[in-house]
Amino acid sequence: MPMSTPTKTGVIICDHGSRRAQSNESLEEVAKLFAARFSDNCDIVEPAHMELAMPDIAAAYAACVQRGAKHIVVLPFFLAHGKHFMRDIPSLTSQAAADFPGTTYQIAEPLGIDNLILDLLKKRLDANDQPILASGEDDPRLKDTPATDKRIQCNTCPFELNKDTGVVSIKAGSGVVAGGVRY
Predict the structure, then answer these.
(1) Is 16 considered catalytic here?
(2) Looking at 16, 49, 71, 81, which residue is catalytic?
(3) Which of 2, 3, 38, 155 could bond 42 through an S-S bridge, CB–CB 3.0 to 4.6 Å?
(4) Is residue 161 in some structural domain?
């Protein structure tokens, strides 16, 4: 009986993506470090951003296949089962896979609640390496941010929070459809 060749697996580490190059470069560094640490069984590792930056999931999937992968595992660099994990990443991965018949893929669980996450939070607490600010003092991280860009939420989110009432509503013009109404 002939021995079957093991299927080469590609790994895609996927985050949200950012307009800030430094944020996107962090994921590239994570992918490089992951590939180096686990090189014995993960020799094909690619970073991907779900949106806002390249490489996107389709480009990373294609890169994995070009490097010889027949099976792709997407590792979401997300904490929980939010909309991106439940809908966007599966949709984008499915679309990418459609261009490569004969490949298979799976999407791993997000990082979740794990003792390692708790250890990392404690490490950050113990580092105490960020500025201590008095109430009303300007945060130095915002020094180059115009006042009009200092906001309480992401500007790409289709929802808005009323600070006074705590009520979340859908932004007008966001394109969201709820209850048959387009906002």
Answers:
(1) yes
(2) 16
(3) 38
(4) no
